């Protein structure tokens, strides 16, 4: 639709589209002709608008056309708008639009002013050694944090918009010389296919991009730290940044990534290896221990050493619940406590700790409702789970499933469930990359960054589990032996 | 549609598993109804077999640290029947996988013991790692004895037959598996320690619980008062230094402590072995010397020389003087560190003679203590058919014992 | 989807040892006494020969599936009939190991709950495997290999201390007839290389394919023979009375007296590997069946096959000996024909212009 030339007519048309009360229209004169600026009150920098846009235009003496007028504005970020629709989008994006009587064109000035959280350390990915910066809700800040780490023209950012109503800005970042072309196309294609009214958080994008929507395991990885994202980009992955979300997505996802803490690469290799083994042991304990404990009591007494068995028998005397129900009950209580502690206001947290520790940990045992070994097993399991925070949701569900299976059919059932999980994971792919790589398919070269971590010089090549253009990451000094 | 069917199937499976989980109602045996048997005694009572089971009975953890035990008995025509009767009488399910000790009573030793223990070899419920021993009198007495070493006599017996026995040469260690392997071998030879109960008055034993005052002892008394009222006054310790030798499952002779020790020296590595040399010259005097033998290396090899089996017994030991009954001069203390040659030769002679004596004694009982027939079959197979009937009686024993000083 | 060389190698190394060490060592010991390892070695050599033949077949008709080879050489209906025959063979061959495994699980792991219910979930897994097909099975094998390998390492570590090589003597003195009888009876647990024939046409062309496959088979065979020998070294004359060698061999380790029966971990890990081995015939049976009927719908045949096996196990689960006797009497001859003779005959088929290899290896 072609824009009309009368400013009143133009404004009335725009007001029909932008009916919200926070859309402000300010009329002024340029060379004694009518002019107006349309902006959204809450997201526009009004001081700059007055100082750098309205004041220079009021004193403008040049030729009266859109090009000359836009050049008079003392800001670089001006953009010509072709249609009223475009104008409205720009206004809602924090870009005031300027209209002039008798001129058919408009232009917008980028004067966004949002209030953002400061760049701070994310609570889920804290480190003792290493960068502490974390993403915030501004896509521009987030992109700047990545750019600061990869100052290469090969770092490509592609922008797109997702969400029919929310019009959320989404940026896809990758290193041109590393990321596989097919992967980039696939990411862009899946982003284009998303047809949703709004995107409140990047997790929406992650869920909608998955091939297996109801999967127990994620197929898109997340990170809240720019150093992690930069490292992943350097391995040929593609990052997806979503405006309004501090969580950046990366694809393809490998399950082993969740066992790799950024700090592993900053600390000494020996220490990191020990930590990774501890993490593996902790995950095994957290998932299997309650199941094995229940199964051993019900079906396989011979698994337990005699002295320990006698202790268990001592402590379960008079407990009204069966071993399986007892463990399930404790697990349920733990999950409730966990959920409550996250949602509960901080000032009530102390009360919750007291209730949790004293009432459940001590009084329940004294009252003979639950036994102390069961509490001990559950506590060990619960604590161990948080060594791999990225997998907590998945593993806690698996833990419950294994516990129920163990209580129903014993350890053999648990083994079968693990095999079923392996079959399932073996056929699960994230953007055409098997999530179980480098174990299945076996990529021996990549095993040096799994449960064993090689030194940096050992990892001269990028992971082959992910399709990549350039494999060499590190070249030893020429005079090195 | 497919997704719908899939989720329905999944839902049914989840529901079924959950029902199973909550019910656990498929002839599952409750841990609280299970009797944890830690030792079994088998006795003959007339025509019947009496099985005595020692159970570990847990008690509240805020009570004494030790585990009190109780013994229950059952009788039947067979071991299996007797065990079943225990279950019937107590309402417990007898759990045998923790049973570490099998004691055979004197009555059982009159015939082929394999008839009694065959059940345990057949069953998968009992681990064949369980140690076997014979009781001088009734097996039940051994299991109801009030040992100062542990609340449960089975545990104190285990200590002798397992951990201590492995390092010491004074006890023969035989598991159910080893006994049956020997029984089914060409030599049909097997052995087990003979356990004797030595009674001590309360307070005599050192380091143990002080008599009947201890709370654990009272618990013990309560549990076994019917069987052994005299235990209230006396502590009983076990002696398992004698070894009972079996041929075709029948006990044929018994080795004393020294013979047990030298037999062990030739069969396995031991860390503690002592021989006493009487009236030997040491530091210029005639003395009784106690020699500790270390790093033993025994080898038994069967050769056929001129059509006659010859058993080569080679034993190398490193000796050290442990003690003497004479006062040693300071120079003697230093020189005594290195064992004089005359003492080493005396020790060699003593051990060789003991082997020879033991061989003759066992041969006279038709007991193939060095498993000559089995060695003939396995290492000299081509002579086996011709010599198998005369293997034991016709074998010449050549012994070479080399003792060296600990330096 | 293609199967890689690595996947085939790891599959062999998982599948071959994981079910040959439950009852089979006792079967060998029953007839061959101290030469039990030899009886096992004879069967493994036979399997190795089959493997060489199958590799030759794959080389000859490179790029073609066995079905395509049969179809192009003998016609569509012959190909379908042969595939149907193999579907039946795989379905039947799955039964005995499942019975054996069920007994193993119930006796060694479930002392307090001898319920058939505890084993039934296996059929859910074999159904899942059957649905997923060969590729998913091969991928799963890569993970399960690590578990099986660590289990065998643990078993070896724990049982070596109580082994006496003395019990292997006198070597090769058992009557030849009895050793061969042992091998014949043990044949029921062999013939796994046959699966390679049904992988044909889906194998990714890689360098040193044949060498790698043969080496992996040799490694797996070595593990089996070593375990048979170890079993004899531990039990000597009473080996014949021991069933489920896997759990029994380890329990004499002194370490166990301090920390309890952690050797069960090895048993459980082998059980995981065995689940794949036991499911493989189901997968291949469903695969052959779908090819034979010409429809790529796996759900119904997979469900039907697993239900049939489940019913069989539920009804006859206390009659392992009868089932084994039946298999020995009737199934072994059929097995020899289908596993060893028929694939060898495939080598005689002419390579026409239609079934010539697509590309050189």
Break the fold down into its secondary structure elements and pairings:
The complex is a heterotrimer of chains A (481), B (407) and C (361).
Chain A: H1 7-17, E1 23-30, E2 33-40, H2 46-58, H3 66-72, E3 78-81, H4 84-92, E4 97-100, E5 106-109, H5 139-149, E6 155-162, E7 168-175, H6 181-193, H7 202-209, E8 221-223, H8 226-233, E9 238-242, E10 248-251, H9 262-266, H10 269-298, H11 306-316, H12 323-343, H13 346-366, H14 372-385, H15 392-409, H16 411-426, E11 429-430, E12 433-434
Antiparallel strand pairs in A: 1-2, 2-4, 3-5, 4-5, 6-7, 7-9, 8-10, 9-10, 11-12
Chain B: H1 2-23, E1 34-45, E2 48-56, E3 69-76, H2 79-90, E4 93-95, E5 101-104, H3 114-122, E6 131-135, H4 139-144, H5 153-167, H6 176-183, E7 189-201, H7 215-224, E8 234-247, E9 250-255, H8 257-267, E10 273-282, E11 285-305, E12 308-324, H9 330-335, H10 341-364, H11 372-379, H12 381-387, E13 396-405
Helix pairs in contact in B: 3-6, 8-10, 11-12
Chain C: H1 5-18, H2 24-32, H3 36-60, H4 66-74, H5 76-93, H6 95-109, H7 121-159, H8 176-186, H9 195-199, H10 209-235, H11 245-249, H12 255-259, H13 263-293, H14 299-316, H15 320-346
Essential attributes:
heterotrimer; A: 481 residues; alpha+beta; 3 domains; five-stranded antiparallel beta sheet; 16 helices; 12 strands; B: 407 residues; alpha/beta; GMP Synthetase, Chain A, domain 3; 2 domains; four-stranded mixed beta sheet; globular
Structure report:
The complex is a heterotrimer of chains A (481), B (407) and C (361). Chain A has 481 residues and is of the alpha+beta class. Helices cover 45% and strands 12% of the residues of chain A. A 5-stranded antiparallel beta sheet of chain A has the order 1-2-4-5-3, sandwiched between helices. In chain A, strands 6-7-9-10-8 form a 5-stranded antiparallel beta sheet, sandwiched between helices. In chain A, a hairpin with a 5-residue loop joins strand 9 (238-242) and strand 10. The model of chain A has no long low-confidence stretch (mean pLDDT 87). With 407 residues, chain B is of the alpha/beta class. Chain B has 2 domains: 27-255, no CATH class; 268-407, 2-Layer Sandwich (GMP Synthetase, Chain A, domain 3). Helices cover 34% and strands 32% of the residues of chain B. In chain B, strands 1, 2, 3, 4, 5, 6, 7, 8 and 9 form a 9-stranded mixed beta sheet that branches. In chain B, strand 1 (34-45) and strand 2 form a beta hairpin. Chain B is globular and about 95 Å long. Chain C is mainly alpha-helical. Chain C has one domain (5-346): Amino acid/polyamine transporter I (Up-down Bundle), CATH 1.20.1740. Helix content of chain C is 71%, strand content 0%. In chain C, helix 3 packs across helix 8 (176-186), helix 3 packs antiparallel against helix 10 (209-235) and helix 6 crosses helix 15 (320-346).
């Amino acid at each position: 639709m072609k824009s009309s030339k009368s400013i009143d007519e133009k404004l009335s048309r725009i007001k029909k589209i932008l009916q919200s009360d926070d859309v402000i229209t300010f009329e002024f004169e340029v060379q004694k002709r009518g002019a107006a600026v349309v902006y959204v009150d809450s997201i526009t920098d009004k001081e700059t608008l007055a100082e750098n846009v309205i004041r220079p235009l009021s004193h403008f003496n040049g030729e009266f056309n859109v090009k000359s007028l836009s050049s008079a504005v003392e800001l670089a970020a001006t953009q010509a708008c072709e249609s009223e629709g475009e104008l409205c989008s720009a206004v809602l994006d924090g870009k005031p639009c300027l209209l002039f009587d008798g001129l058919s064109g408009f232009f917008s000035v980028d004067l966004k002013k949002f209030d953002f959280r400061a760049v701070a350390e994310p609570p889920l990915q804290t480190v003792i050694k290493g960068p502490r910066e974390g993403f915030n809700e501004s896509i521009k800040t987030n992109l700047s944090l990545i750019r600061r780490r990869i100052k290469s023209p090969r770092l490509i950012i592609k922008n797109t918009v997702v969400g029919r109503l929310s019009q959320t800005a989404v940026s896809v970042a990758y290193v041109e010389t590393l990321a596989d072309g097919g992967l980039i196309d696939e990411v862009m294609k899946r982003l284009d296919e998303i047809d949703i009214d709004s995107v409140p958080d990047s997790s929406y994008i992650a869920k909608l991009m998955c091939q297996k929507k109801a999967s127990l395991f994620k197929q898109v990885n997340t990170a809240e730290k720019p150093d992690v994202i930069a490292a992943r980009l350097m391995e040929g992955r593609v990052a997806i940044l979503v405006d309004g979300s501090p969580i950046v997505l990366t694809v393809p996802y490998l399950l082993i990534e969740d066992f790799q803490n950024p700090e592993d690469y900053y600390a000494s290799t020996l220490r990191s290896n020990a930590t990774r083994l501890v993490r593996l042991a902790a995950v095994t304990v957290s998932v299997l221990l309650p199941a094995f404990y229940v199964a051993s009591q019900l079906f396989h007494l011979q698994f337990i050493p005699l002295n320990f068995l006698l202790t268990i028998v001592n402590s379960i005397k008079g407990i009204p619940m069966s071993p399986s129900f007892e463990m399930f009950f404790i697990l349920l209580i733990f999950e409730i406590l966990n959920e409550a502690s996250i949602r509960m206001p901080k000032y009530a947290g102390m009360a919750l700790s007291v209730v949790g520790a004293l009432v459940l940990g001590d009084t329940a045992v004294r009252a003979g409702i639950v036994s102390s070994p069961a509490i001990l097993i559950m506590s060990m399991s619960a604590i161990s789970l948080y060594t791999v925070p990225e997998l907590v949701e998945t593993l806690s569900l698996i833990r419950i499933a294994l516990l129920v299976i163990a209580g129903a059919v014993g350890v053999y059932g648990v083994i079968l469930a693990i095999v079923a999980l392996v079959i399932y994971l073996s056929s699960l792919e994230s953007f055409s990359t098997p999530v179980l790589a480098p174990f299945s398919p076996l990529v021996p070269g990549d095993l040096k960054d799994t449960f064993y971590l090689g030194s940096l010089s050992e990892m001269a090549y990028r992971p082959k589990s992910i399709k990549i253009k350039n494999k060499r990451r590190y070249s030893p000094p020429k005079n090195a032996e | 549609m497919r997704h719908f069917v899939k989720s329905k199937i999944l839902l049914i499976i989840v529901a079924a598993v959950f029902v199973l989980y909550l019910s656990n109602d498929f002839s599952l045996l409750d841990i609280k109804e299970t009797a944890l048997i830690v030792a079994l005694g088998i006795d003959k009572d007339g025509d019947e077999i009496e099985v005595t089971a020692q159970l570990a009975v847990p008690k509240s953890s805020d009570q004494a640290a030790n585990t009190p035990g109780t013994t229950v008995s059952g009788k039947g025509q067979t071991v299996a029947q007797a065990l079943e009767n225990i279950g019937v009488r107590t309402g417990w399910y007898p759990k045998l996988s923790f049973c570490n000790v099998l004691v055979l009573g004197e009555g059982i030793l009159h015939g082929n013991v394999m008839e009694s223990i065959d059940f345990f070899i057949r069953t998968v419920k009992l681990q064949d790692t369980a140690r076997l021993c014979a009781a001088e009198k009734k097996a039940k007495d051994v299991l109801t004895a009030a040992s100062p070493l542990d609340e449960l006599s089975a545990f104190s017996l285990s200590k002798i037959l397992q951990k201590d026995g492995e390092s010491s040469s004074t006890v023969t260690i035989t598991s159910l598996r080893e006994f049956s392997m020997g029984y089914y071998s060409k030599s049909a030879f097997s052995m087990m320690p003979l356990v004797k109960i030595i009674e001590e008055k309360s307070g005599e034993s050192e380091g143990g619980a002080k008599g009947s005052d201890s709370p654990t002892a009272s618990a013990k008394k309560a549990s076994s008062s019917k069987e052994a009222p005299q235990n209230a006054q006396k502590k009983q310790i076990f002696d398992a230094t004698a070894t009972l030798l079996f041929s075709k499952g029948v006990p044929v002779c018994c080795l004393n402590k020294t013979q047990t020790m030298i037999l062990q020296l030739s069969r396995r590595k031991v860390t503690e072995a002592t021989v006493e040399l009487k009236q030997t010259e040491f530091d210029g005097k005639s003395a009784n010397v106690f020699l500790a033998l270390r790093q033993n290396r025994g080898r038994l090899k069967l050769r056929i020389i001129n059509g006659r089996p010859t058993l080569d017994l080679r034993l190398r030991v490193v000796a050290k003087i442990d003690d003497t009954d004479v006062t040693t001069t300071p120079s003697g203390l230093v020189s005594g560190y290195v064992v004089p040659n005359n003492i080493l030769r005396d020790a060699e002679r003593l051990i060789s003679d003991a082997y020879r004596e033991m061989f003759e004694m066992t041969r006279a009982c038709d007991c193939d203590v060095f498993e000559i027939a089995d060695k003939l079959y396995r290492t000299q197979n081509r002579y086996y058919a011709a010599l198998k009937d005369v293997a034991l009686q016709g074998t010449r024993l050549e012994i070479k014992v080399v003792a060296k000083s600990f330096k | 989807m293609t199967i890689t060389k690595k996947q085939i190698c790891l599959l062999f190394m998982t599948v071959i040892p994981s079910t040959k060490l439950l009852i089979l060592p006792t079967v060998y010991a029953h007839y061959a006494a101290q030469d039990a390892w030899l009886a096992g070695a004879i069967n493994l050599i036979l399997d190795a020969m089959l493997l060489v033949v199958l590799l030759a077949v794959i080389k000859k008709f490179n790029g073609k599936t066995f079905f395509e080879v049969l179809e192009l050489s003998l016609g569509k209906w012959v190909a379908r009939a042969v595939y149907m025959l193999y579907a039946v063979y795989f379905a039947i061959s799955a039964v005995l190991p499942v019975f054996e495994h069920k007994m193993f699980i119930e006796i060694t792991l479930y002392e307090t709950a001898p319920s058939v219910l505890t084993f039934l979930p296996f059929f859910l897994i074999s159904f899942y495997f059957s649905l997923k097909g060969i590729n998913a099975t091969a991928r799963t094998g890569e993970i399960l290999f690590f578990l099986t390998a660590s289990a065998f390492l643990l078993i070896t570590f724990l049982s070596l201390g109580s082994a006496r090589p003395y019990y292997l003597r006198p070597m090769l003195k058992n009557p030849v007839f009895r050793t061969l009888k042992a091998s014949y009876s043990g044949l029921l647990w062999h013939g796994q290389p046959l699966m390679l024939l049904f992988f044909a046409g889906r194998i990714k062309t890689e360098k040193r394919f044949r060498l790698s496959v043969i080496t992996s088979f040799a490694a797996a065979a070595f593990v089996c023979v070593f375990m048979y020998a170890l079993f004899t070294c531990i039990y000597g004359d009473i080996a014949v009375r021991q069933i489920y060698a896997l759990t029994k061999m380890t329990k004499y380790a002194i370490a166990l007296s301090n920390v309890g029966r952690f050797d069960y971990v090895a048993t459980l890990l082998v059980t995981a590997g065995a689940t794949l081995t036991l499911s493989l015939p189901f997968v291949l049976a469903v695969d052959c069946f779908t090819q034979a009927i010409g429809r790529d719908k796996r759900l119904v045949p997979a469900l039907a096959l697993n239900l049939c096996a489940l019913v069989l196990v539920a009804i006859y689960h206390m009659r392992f000996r009868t089932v084994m006797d039946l298999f020995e009497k009737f199934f072994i001859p059929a097995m020899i024909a289908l596993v060893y003779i028929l694939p060898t005959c495939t080598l005689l088929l002419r390579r026409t212009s239609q079934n010539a290899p697509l590309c050189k290896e």
